[in-house]
Every structure is written in structure tokens, then in C-alpha cells.
User: What shape does this take?
Amino acid sequence: MEIYKDKTKSFEERAKDLVSRMTLEERCEQLKFGAPAIERLGVQAYNWWNEGLHGVARAGVATMFPQAVGLAASFDDELLRSVAEVISIETRAKYNEYSKHGDRDIYKGLTLWSPNINIFRDPRWGRGHETYGEDPYLTSRLGCAFVRGIQGDGEYMRAAACAKHFAVHSGPEALRHEFDAIATPKDLEETYLPAFRALVKEAKVEGVMGAYNRTNGEPCCGSKFLYDALCDWGFNGYFVSDCWAIKDFHENHHVTATAEESVALALKNGCDVNCGSTYILVYKAYQDGMITEEEITSACEHLMRTRMRLGMFDETEFDSLNYNDVENEAHKEVNLEAARNACVLLKNDGILPLDRSKIKTIGVVGPNAQSQRALMGNYHGTASRYETILRGIQDSFDGRVLFSEGCHLFRGRVEGLGLPGDRIAEAVIVAEHSDVVILCVGLDETLEGEQGDASNTDASGDKITLALPEPQRLLVKKVLEVGKPTVVVVVSGSSLNIESDKENALLQVFYPGSTGGKAVAEVLFGETSPSGKLPVTFYKDVHKLPDFTDYSMRYRTYRNERTEDDNVLFPFGYGLSYGDIRVTGASAVCENGVVKATASLKNFGRATKDVLQVYFKSESADAVRNHSLCAFKKVSLGEGETAEVELSIPEADISVVNEFGTRYLDRNAKTTLYFGTSQPDAQSEALTGKKCVAVDLKL
Assistant: This one.
């Protein structure tokens, strides 16, 4: 019996045996993302490219969850794992069904190129909404949960996750194919690499994707430094280039002179499969003596090992999954729960939740009120039903609901032959005839997203301002001038400043997925108490931020920002609820490399969820400027209910990093833990009316 068919052997052994039976030319062909069949060996054609950022994408109908940044707003790793489990079940079900019909096209495989765990270091980055925000600790915890949900914990993986984009990648989009991101050893260890390390070492992520840019001079898909880091972490999955990134080596980065040299640089530095077309020259590079047969064989073995782990050569427990397991009622409920948790209440003067008994007419205004695209975010799938915000309100309210688009998302007029502002009068009329106005503004993936995908050609998908598009700025001004009680609902993937203080409430919902409108309505009418927290800082103005191309973390994100700049609109970790959960006491002791912490919580208001957040502040000279998140836990408490929450915090999560990139626990420096439902900064305290409980920690 051939070893590769022997289920008693390890996947490693089976993959080596299978590859040994291939000709060298066949091995070369397997390194392309669209790998051909080898019928005599039972190897089916396979396309490695599939997307599952917040649902199975680009392959027909699937459950479409909130965009990644909205999932991050939940601060709930258990929820992220549940979401990922649904995505992987639907991935496998669709793969099974498509395979039965001989459909092995792109976006129909089991290797999902998600999650995106880059750090959202600058609010201008258009792709930032694909990430879990600006904090490396939050990113690592949510990323690990997502990977575990995708891959499962059985003998075979349900699907394979992929950590991207490795590494030091977060714009500008227009420069990504030629840009060299310079990062110090301290910034690498403190910010840019921790999430990747965690996903490799803890979650055993099966794939890693390189970035388009260079990092400290080396193209990321052919970087010895990054490859060595993966080896040091014990990575034993497969490495894939970003799409057409390898041709950037010679065409844009100019670190090689020919395509064959680019093939050699990538393959020698661990890139197993090329998303793109450069690896059609693998055999030519071999003939020219640039790469060895052993290097080709090793890459092919990595790829076959992944396919073995996915059970592509065996019968598995997942073979029975079928289209009945796609977008079913159970999955829709997980989606709705995720959308509820993505809502972040930024301001409320008491208008929310709305009292139906006191309202006869609600006016819903704005370009994102009836927009299906506003629910999506990028890298999205196709839902069979979309609950827009307007529909959610209409379905939840028995009185009259008036609607006006108000303006185009970014153009000066809605109708091509109309005058500028052709829907403003209607919006004002709707407001005048309403008891309450729900004003739905913001962006969508056409304005912030990936270079080439977004219509925002002026900035290649990035943002040049944190202000709303000009037509929406006028709409906000005119509607608020009417003077009716107004709730502003912002749909966007990142920081925006609506430049107003006249609204009664402000609700950030990110891109909330196909059930987003229902979730938003539940929050507005009080069926759900909002519990989301900002995974990114919301700023007032980009002009006080460091240059977009500067990858130094100095003065970036909540951990290092200058509070004296007065540029923070809403802080990282901030979000209100309809309840009032407070930390009433806390304790912490460091034993055997772990901080054992306990927090006492009490809800002084109505039933709600909230997020217990723990930050540490070190007085070490090597510490970040402010403080860092080191633990969090989503909690649910009824009115008057109390709880004791126990947390285990590894010493590494309260460590500091010196200029040489060495992480250590500074036992000579005072270290304080802060327990609360927000950061321990003055602005968060002012916005929430709550003060964190501080505990000095003896190390």
C-alpha cells in the first residue's frame, strides 16, 4: 500500500510519499494557486484562493457577518470563535457540494485567506476595517479565537485559516507595491509581530500570507528575517504570497532584475505557493540553477501536508455537510448576535432607548439608511436577505416611518439632472414631520477599502480626511437645525468625525452584516443594550497625526498618543450601555509567571452586557507612553446583579520591550493594573462617569 494512502501514518509522512511520486515538473505546477490535477495519484485540481474574513466570500450565498472591525468591537473571543465555526462549516459544506459537481474554481476551496491581523495604526488606512483594530493584544486574542473556530480541534481541520499580511502592513494603499515599511526592533516586538506569533504558536494557524510591501528593505514575500521568525515560532503550515506580490520584486521594489530571480528569492525564503503568475517560471528558475530540486520539493510537501490535514485524500467527519448547513437558522442567529455586539453607543443624552409609546412618527434619513452596501464591508459574501437600517426600524415600529435618502453618499446630487443638494429639502421636510429622527450617515466599501476595489481613486481606497463627505456634512447640518430629537447612526469601518454636538445620541455600527438593520433597531428600541467598545481610537483631525507613511509607533494609538494634543474624539475601549456595570473592587497577585486577578462587578442599572477591561501601566523606561490592554472579558449582568470575574494574565502580557526588541518583565519598575469597563484615562472617565480600580502589582 502506498504510504500516502495509509491513514495510520502522519500527515507529514504521507505528504512526503505523495510528493516523491510526482515528477519535478508536476511539483512545480503544484506551487501555483490554481494547482492542476494529477489523476494517476488521485490529486484533484485545487484552487488555494478562498476568502472568509466575515463569512464565506465571493462564492455565492453564505451567512454574511459584520465586518472584522465590527466583530472586534464585541471584545468577545468566544463570539469570534462561534462566528468562525459557522464560516468553516459553510466553507466545508460549499466545498463538498461544489466538488460533487466538478466545480473546483477560485473561492471554492478549504483554505481561507483570513484573518487579517495587521495593526490598524492609522485611521486613514482604507483596509483597516478588515482588521481587529489598533491593539496587538486584542488582535492576538480575537485572531486566535477565529483561527480555532475555523480549523477546529479534531483529527482533520474543517477549513484552514491564514494569518495575513506578514508583516508591518497598513498602508498607504497607493504605495503598497513599492513601499518600504521601516520598523524598529522595539516596534516590531511591541506592536507588529505579537499577533502573528500568537496565531502561529498558540492557535497553530495553518497558513501565513506575506504582505506586498518591503519591511526594513526586504520584500515581505521573500524576507529572510520574516521567514526566520516563522521558523523560530515553530510554524509548520504553508506560506502564500499576496496576490501578484512576487512580480513586485522586480517590477516595483527592484530588489531583483528578472522574474526568475524573484521566484528564487521567494522560494528560498519560504514562500510555498504563489497567488499570482510568477511561479509559472519555477521550472525555468530551476533549469537556470537559481533554485534546487530540494527547495521545490519542500514547498510542495508543505502544500500536500495542508491538503492531507484537510482530509482531501480521506473520508472525514465533515463529508456529510451540505447546502442545508449554509445560512441556516442557527447560523443566522449567530450572525444577529454578532451584529448586536458590533454596535457601540458613543453618546446618549437619555433619548435612547426610544419609547414607542411616546412616538407616533419616526423619520429615517440618510444615504446609509436603505443601503445594502452599507451592511457589507469588503471581502463579503452574498446573503439571501439584507436587513437595512430602514427595514429594521420599519419592522420594529407600528407607527409611521418616513424616509428620505437626504443626499448621495458622496456626490453632490442624487439625480443626475438635479441641482446640488436635490434631496436636502425632502430630508428637512421628513424631520419636520417626525417626532424622532434617525440620521444614517457614513461610508461604505466604495470609499474605504483596498486599492483597485474602492471607487475612492483619489486616495486608492484610503481616507484623506476623517470628516463625512461634503454632501453628508450639509445633510447633518440641515437636519439638526430642524431641532427634532435626533439619533445619528454612523456606518463606517473606521474613525469618523461628524463635526457636531447637537445630536442627542450617536451610535457607531461599523459594517454590521446582513442582519445589521435588525440589530440596530433592537438597540434603538431597547430590546438589546449596546455593549460594543471601540477597537480603534476615534480622532478629531488627521492633521495632528504622524505622517501616514511613518511606521514608528511614537504618538500612535492609545498606547502612545499625546493626550496634550487634544485630538481624541472617542477613546479606544470606550462604549456606553443602557445598564451601569461598575468594578467595585479588584485584587491581583503574581505567582509562577502568571498574574491571578479577580474583579468584583455590580450592575447598578438595567440588564446589560459590558466588557471588563484590564490595563497595565509600567513606570519602566522601556514601557509604552500610556498603558496597555492585558486582559478583557465580556460579562452579562441583570439589574442589581453582582459577579466575581477571575482572570489569568501571563507575565508576558505585562512585560515591556527595550530598544533592541527584547521583551522582559521589569521587576524594578512600579506596575499598576487598572480594572474597569474602559481605559483608565481622564477622557474615558469623563465620558463614562466611572473611574477604574487601580491595583499596584508586586512583581
Q: What stands out?
A: DSSP finds 19 helices and 25 strands in the chain.
